[in-house]
Amino acid sequence: MSAEDPAPATVEHEQVMLVVRLDTRPGAQARMHDALTRLADATRRSDRGLVRFEVGLDPTDDTRVVGYEIWESQDALAEHSAKAHTQEFLTSVRDLVVNPAAPLHAERWRPLSPETPVRYAASTDAVRAPAAAPPGFRSERRKIGDADLHYVIGGSGPLGGEHHRVGVRGCPRGQ
């Protein structure tokens, strides 16, 4: 989703993270879903330098779409932006968005630390299918009221382990 990326302010070989938003025109959700699925599948299957490429829908408003991308470098992002499947997506969505003059709103970020590439499985629904949990993590789903929640739990580091338990009302921290 990143062909019109913001101006780079990164070191040449530093990973690049994008958060991309778009607003689908009401009534065009099914066509947008198909376009996003084609883009995600093609990107995950063939783009060099891809670390992560996720697409999600607002759970209360399926006209709001967000993309989360991490690329190994600015060069990898530029290559993705020039690919036929990316250009075809950008051309096709102009008719599906609220503002065709500015179909995407992209913000450039830098990962806090280098991310490891995700291995994507083939999916019939690339827009909603989550990536596999990384090694050392587990994934859980729960339904609370009308909300479907997806948790990814695990890892290590300064917040993991026994030293950082959250206190419960009436109990001292760490118990």
The CATH topology assignment of the domain at 16-119 is Alpha-Beta Plaits
Integer-rounded radius of gyration:
18 Å
CATH second-level architecture of the domain at 16-119: 2-Layer Sandwich
Bin the strand percentage: 25-35%
Mean pLDDT: 80
Placed side by side, the strands forming the largest sheet appear as 2-3-1-4
| CATH hierarchy, class of the domain at 16-119 | Alpha Beta
> Which regions have little confidence, pLDDT < 50, spanning 5+ residues?
159-175
Derived structural class:
alpha+beta
Total DSSP E strands: 6
Largest sheet: 4 strands, antiparallel
Brief overview:
With 175 residues, the protein is of the alpha+beta class.
Give a topology summary.
Elements: E1 16-23, H1 29-46, E2 50-58, E3 61-71, H2 74-82, H3 84-93, E4 105-109, E5 137-144, E6 147-154
Antiparallel strand pairs: 1-3, 1-4, 2-3, 5-6
Structure characterization notes:
This protein is α+β, with helices and mostly antiparallel strands and 175 residues long. The chain has a domain at 16-119: Alpha-Beta Plaits, CATH 3.30.70.100. The chain has 3 helices and 6 strands, in the order βαββααβββ. The protein has helices at residues 29-46, 74-82, 84-93, and strands at residues 16-23, 50-58, 61-71, 105-109, 137-144, 147-154. The strands form 2 sheets. It has a 4-stranded antiparallel β-sheet with strand order 2-3-1-4. Strands 5-6 form a two-stranded antiparallel ribbon. The chain is globular and about 45 Å long. It starts with 15 loop residues before the first strand and ends in a 21-residue tail after the last strand. The model is unreliable at 159-175 (pLDDT under 50).
